[in-house]
Amino acid sequence: FSSSAAHIQRNPTYSVLNSDDVSYFKSILGESGVVQDEDRVAVANVDWMGKYKGASQLLLLPKSSNEVSKILSYCNSRRLAVVPQGGNTGLVGGSVPVYDEVNGILTCEAGCVLENLSSFVENKGFIMPLDLGAKGSCHIGGNISTNAGGLRFIRYGSLHGNVLGLEVVLADGTVLDMLTTLRKDNTGYDLKHLFIGSEGSLGVVTKIAILTPAKLPSTNVAFLSCNDYISCQKLLLAARRSLGEILSAFEFMDRHCINLAMKYLEGVHNPLPVSPYNFYVLIETTGSDESYDKAKLEAFLLRSMEDGLVTDGVIAQDISQASNFWRIREGISEASVKVGAVYKYDLSIPVEKLYDIVEETRSRVGDMGDVLGYGHLGDGNLHLNIVSTKYSDEMLAQIEPFVYEWTSKQRGSISAEHGLGLMKAEKIHYSKSSEAVQLMASIKKLFDPNSILNPYKVRRYV
Ligand code: FAD
Ligand code: MLT
Ligand code: ZN
User: Fold this and answer.
1) What pLDDT, in 10s, does the model give residues 156-193?
2) Is the pTM of the predicted complex or chain greater than 0.90?
3) Is there an atom of ligand 1 within 6 Å of 109 CB?
4) CA-proximal residue: ligand 1, atom 49 (nearest)
């Protein structure tokens, strides 16, 4: 590994790949399923931010659970380490969907791209319960394995609630069939939950059954500005009360984010350009009655202005305006990597305290970088990003362990939705007790005794 993961030493108990291994993989996957081409393997060895680099020499492209099973069974017996990969959009270091319209349940393979699944179910009058900026590249298997949150969480909740069943291949090649499509099933432990959010450390997810909510006919999006963070909080409370069941997103970003988005994202414009407000909020409503829903949002906006919570605001009049609003919010991560170096933190913090850490970090970093605060305010999830032209130890020393310690003191989470990955493998104790970490280590040992799955990401567990 290189970059900020440079300190990781190769574990000598893993075997080294040899030509017999490659021949075996070719015998099960064919020539096209075994990639040794350096350029193609190099793409898979680096993450979306270009920050973490691996040294794997082989990329395997299994097409079925049976092929995944044969690969893992072989790797386990040879003690070859395996990194499961989906769309490679993680931020911490071919498929045929089947649809049950009566119950609104999608069953599909892990390699489906989220956006393709969204189009597939939308054609049938449903939506996916999750949506995120990486939808065009990320795979549903990767979403399950990271327990991705995203933009619809406020309305439809966690994947722990929406995933009904999974098929998973364990480290020894066992295909574990938990692919039920039942809403209710209290027979024994609900094992699928162990695989949701375990970042490929316990098994490879190969199939998924997921609940899909009905697609409602009326969607409205508003882009608002607030002068201070307390107004953002009050606005959230007011939105919950007044918009109630039609509220489907409540995203916030500070002035620094908007400035960055305007500088680096092509084709977007600031919908509220008149003066530099301190905070911006994107509110989406989704409901079943077009005129009623819009009137409700307009009345809410007017009242919020009269109450002084909102300084300015606009409701999208067409799809292109709405997608401009969303592009600003979803494009912040893309804009931030363009600066050069990005230190990314993904925190769960009680909403009242959530912006304090942004201000404290800003004063620690000074003019070494720009500090961005944005995220899923409705879920108490802050994305704290520090951007700079290059990575430096001096900057890192201002941020860590400060951010982790501060979050831990608030009993927050150091990873709300992105997972631990390489970046935070050693930091789990800031959010979990040693007893909980020990129990995780026992579970890891039980599922993957040779520790071949996703090496180095769960060092604290083993
Ligand atoms: P990868 O990056 O390939 O893998 C992620 C992890 O899952 C790795 O540990 C990998 O080993 C494991 N894994 C992948 N596939 C499998 C499998 N089939 N079985 C077992 N393990 C597997 N996240 C959010 O939660 N909310 C957001 O709003 C959000 N927005 C994003 C926006 C952008 C622009 C980007 C780049 C990322 C964003 N993310 C967000 C991060 C998020 O974790 C990923 O985008 C997504 O869930 C990962 O899917 P992937 O297929 O790319 O997985
Ligand atoms: C987001 O909400 O935009 C994502 O989680 C990605 C990020 O924080 O970069
Ligand atoms: Zn997010």
Assistant:
1) 999 999 999 999 999 999 999 999 999 999 999 999 99
2) yes
3) no
4) 142
Q: Per-residue confidence at 7, pLDDT binned at 50, 70, 90?
A: low
CATH code for the domain in which residue 423 is found:
3.30.70.2740
Is the backbone peptide bond immediately before 129 cis, with ω within 30 degrees of 0?
Answer: no
> Quick check: is 444 in a domain?
no
Verify whether ligand 2 is closer than 6 Å to residue 91 (CB atom): yes
In CATH, what number is assigned to the domain containing residue 242?
A: 3.30.70.2190
Q: What kind and span of H or E run contains 189? A: none
Residue range(s) defining the domain that contains residue 314:
218-332
Q: Is the CB of 415 under 6 A from ligand 1?
A: no
139 lines ligand 1 (CB under 6 A): yes
C-beta of 149 in contact with ligand 1 (< 6 A): yes
CB atoms within 10 A of CB 63: 15
Asked whether 257 and 332 are in contact (CB, 8 A), the reply is: yes
Residue 171, CA atoms < 13 Å, CB-side half-sphere: 25
Same domain, 139 and 203: yes
Whether residues 350 and 420 fall in one domain: yes
Quote the ligand 2 centre to 280 CA distance (angstroms): 16
Q: Which residue among 274, 305, 332 closes a domain?
A: 332
CA–CA gap between residue 130 and residue 148 (Å, rounded): 8
Phi/psi at 89 (nearest 5 deg)?
-110, 10
Residue 248, helix vs strand vs coil: strand
Does 238 share its domain with 320? yes
**Is residue 93 assigned to a domain?**
no
Q: Which atom of ligand 1 is nearest to the CA of 376?
A: 28
Residue 385 CA: which ligand is closest? Answer: 2
For residues 367 and 423, membership in a common domain is answered with yes
State ipTM.
Answer: 0.99
Q: Is 223 left (phi over 0), alpha (psi -120 to 50) or beta?
A: beta
Q: At 163, which CATH number? A: 3.30.465.10
Give the number of the atom of ligand 2 that is nearest the alpha carbon of residue 149: 5
CA distance 372 to 344: 10
